[in-house]
Structure formats: structure tokens, C-alpha cells
Amino acid sequence: MKIDKITYLIFITLFILTIPGFAIAQTAAGQNSVEKVVQDPLKFKVRLFEIRHRNPESLRVALRALGSGTPGADMEANQQLRTLTVRDYPENIAAIEEALKRLDVPEQSPVSLEFQIHLISASMTGSEPKVEVTKNLEPVIAQLKSSLKFTNYRYISSVLNRANDGGTVNSSGITSSLFPAPNSSGAIPDNPSFYQYRMRTIKLRQDSLGKETFQIDEFYFGVTVPIRTGVGGERSVNYRDIGITTPLTLREGEMAVVGTANISGSDEAIIVVVSVHKVK
Q1: What is the Cα–Cα distance from 57 to 55, expressed in whole angstroms?
Q2: pTM for the full model?
Q3: Domains, the chain, with CATH or none
Q4: Mean pLDDT of successive 10-residue segments in the chain (280 residues)?
């Protein structure tokens, strides 16, 4: 009978352990006793949150870690009604409410940026044409005259594009002759030139001082120009591709000289100037 009594006690102990909310605790004397784990669903509260801006199911997934995890606690999202229903302890509901204040906000519209690309031709020959330029380009041309060896500078044209933060720009066009007078390189006057440019992965960032910068992972500008080849009566017209490829960092309102691309030898070049503004 002793064996049967021991078997019965083991069975009763295992049965108690399977009851939710109970556990075996050890007394100071080293004996095991059964105690109730403090989990009181009667203290649960229910709160209905109206979701105004974001996806309710996405918020439920993001916030579920803030729940108590106690059996009976729950969080349900209703896509049609745009609500989030929480059943949990008051302190957990309060934490979820605070998180919703930060997460359920309107998505910010991408910042729209306006880029201007200015083309300037530079040469060592010919007379300088009297071509008017905008006032913001006058300091740039003055700086070029003081820092480069070219004697003549001519404003060609400007192009404008808009892009969003994180976007790209791809464009192309045609322009009149880059050099209106004959020059030593063989670039032919009165023949059009063709240009193309792209800006990949435009990013609006802040530098270490907290000032905004505009970063372009890859800026490319290329132009196809007519070149006279051959000698005497055997001369013919061919087109040659020249270009600039570089990463680029700009500040709003600055006129940045991206670089120069030589057409032939070192007597003629195309100079590319870029500026950017945020569109209000």
C-alpha cells in the first residue's frame, strides 16, 4: 500500500503543476509547497485606439513587444475601421499609447529639389563674345579667369531639373556650337553639340555642424562635339564624346564648379557648374 500511496502523491503533484497559475516553491526547510503565481487578468483594461495615419496591422506588429505577454492579454488591429484594440495591464496600455503618439504620424512628403546645370566654354583663342549671363554666374566666371589659364570664357546655356530626396535625374539635349569661331582644336563652328547628364541617388543630409548638404553618389555630364579631322580637301566631320563623372556634395545656393572636360588637347574645354535649391 505504501507504493500505491507514493504513486498517488506523485500523480497529484503532476496534476497540480499542469494547472495554469500554480508552481512548486521550496520552503525554508527545504520542503516543496504549491503556490499561486500572481497573474490577475481581473486587472486588465481594454483600450480602443483610433489610427489616423499609418497601417493598423503594421503598428500592431511594431507594438506587440510592449504588451505584458500574460495569458489573456491581446492586441487586435482592424484594417477597415482603422483601430487598434488593446487588452492588457494599465501600465502596458500606457506604454503603447505613448509609442502610438510617436509612430502614428503623417508620412513626410519627399523634399523637392531644383537643380540648375550651367555650361561654359573656355578657350585660348578667338575673341570673347559679349554674352550676358545671370548675376549669380558672374562671380563664377571671375573666379575661373583668376584660377584657370584660359583667356576667353563664353556662357552657353543652363538647364533645370527637379528631383526628390532619394531620387535620380536623367536628361539630355542639344545646344548650338560650343565655339562660334574657328579654333586650334578643330571643333567646328555652327555645328550643334549633344549633351546628356545624370545624377544618381540624390540625398539630403546634415554635416557634423548640423548644416544641410546635398549628396549625389554619381554625377555625370557628357557632351558629343563635332570635330574636323583630316588635312586639306580630305577633311571630314566626326563627333567625339567627352565627359565628367564624379561624386558631388553641394550646399543650397552655392555655385559649384564640377570640373572641366577638354575637347582636344588643352586649349578648349567645357566647364560644368551646378547649383541646387529646395523647392518651398
Answers
A1: 6
A2: 0.58
A3: 2-36 (no CATH), 43-103 (3.30.1370.120), 112-278 (no CATH)
A4: 50 48 43 45 88 93 93 93 94 94 85 89 66 75 85 85 88 76 49 87 83 91 78 66 90 88 75 88
